[in-house]
Amino acid sequence: MTMNGFRRHAAIAMMAMAALASIFAGQNVRAAEKKNAGELVYIGMHGTQIHAARFDIKSGDMTMIGPVADNPRPTWAVMHPDKPIVYFDDNSGEEGKSEGGVQTLRINARTGTLTQIGNMRAGGAGTTHLWLDRPSMTMLAANYSGGSISSMRILKDGTLGKPASVIKLTGSGPHRRQASPHAHGITVDPSGKFALVADLGSDRIFVFPFDRKTGTLGQDDPANSRHYVVTAGSGPRHLAFHPDGRTLYLINELTADIEVLDWNAKSGRMKPIQKLATNAPGFAGTTSAAEIAVSADGRFVYSSNRGDHTLVVHSVDSRTHKLSQIQRISSGGLLPWHFVLHKSGKWMLVSNRDSESLNLFVVDKKTGMLSNSGKSLKTPKPVFAIFAGGRR
């Protein structure tokens, strides 16, 4: 073979090798994209780490990524409405000796890892619940152990400013866990004029004026109080508004019942419509309820009962918005601390803390009924999960 012939063969071989390398590289890229496909799910826990998983919206398959950030006690989270940022509470200070806070974390959509870009103290111990008011770009925090609430403006880079307002709550109840106020849930009403606080310790739903222009909370008028008092020993935990903004659903932790309340956005007052148990008839165990949510179309209300490890489904009367129980189903594990409905309306993801599992349920959009998909994910002490979406 001549030198020129040898060179031609070598060139052809090099081109073939390059083509093969390109094919293999493409396969690797597609494999990586497949591995990183699906929505991110972030998981809070009774521990010191935030975990992440991938969720396939079509099949319901879940794949664990693992720990993605440190946090003294991450138990609740909300998403930034526009940026790849998730906010997790820092529930430390449960003993009341240190201050809780809110951690601002930037999402790496490819890997799921989180990078802390902010960490703001929230004006009280044991920050346990967060609410992001998008119109005013304000974060509101409920501090359980500190018995206080606060508001913080969200800055342009997504981090939080120092508390613009902090309000200390008052009151107590008859239960051993009610020696002092324990703010457990905070919600801005649909009108944007009021912040409602479910306080487990004082058996009240506190109602405070909220100024969207300044992002501040105002004091209630003691002489003309709007606060709603529940039955002593009930332990209000979380609130959920019906989409029409006129009906409010409260779940009481200590008595495991739901209260249906008529909400007047002009006066900032509420009055009772209905009260019903989430416990099964004849239940004799420890009574404890945890979460409540309304379907996007307002036709169904879901709640979790930690006493008998169940999910309870209620249909909503289209005229009165009263509830009728239509299903009680096992949560798929032990101690269903929290559940989240996917925005598609097709899925519910349940955090079963004591069985250390996330359990996936299929939601029938027509009937509202739940069925266990049989898909679950093992994860340490989960008490919260949030769908964070796919690539941003």
Task: Please give the CATH class of the largest domain.
Answer: Mainly Beta
Helix content: under 10%
Q: Determine the number of helices (DSSP H or I, runs of at least 4 residues).
A: 1
Provide the residue-averaged pLDDT: 92
What is the overall silhouette? Answer: globular
Helix and strand pattern: HEEEEEEEEEEEEEEEEEEEEEEEEEEEEE
Termini separation comes to 57 Å
Unreliable residue runs: 20-34
Number of strands: 29
CATH architecture type of the largest domain: 7 Propeller
User: In what range is the share of β-strand residues?
Assistant: over 45%
Structure commentary:
With 392 residues, the protein is mainly beta. The protein folds into two domains: 1-35; 38-389, Methylamine Dehydrogenase, Chain H (7 Propeller), CATH 2.130.10.10. It contains one helix and 29 strands. Strand 21 and strand 22 form a beta hairpin. The chain is globular. It starts with a helix and ends with a strand.
Summarize it.
This protein is mainly beta and 392 residues long. The chain has one helix at residues 3-35, and strands spanning 39-45, 49-55, 62-70, 77-79, 85-90, 101-107, 114-121, 127-133, 138-143, 148-153, 165-168, 183-188, 194-199, 204-211, 216-217, 228-229, 236-241, 247-252, 257-264, 269-277, 289-294, 300-305, 310-316, 323-330, 336-341, 347-352, 357-363, 370-378, 382-389. The strands form 7 sheets. Strands 12, 13, 14, 15 and 16 form a 5-stranded antiparallel beta sheet that branches. The chain has a 4-stranded antiparallel beta sheet with strand order 3-2-1-29, with no helix packed on it.
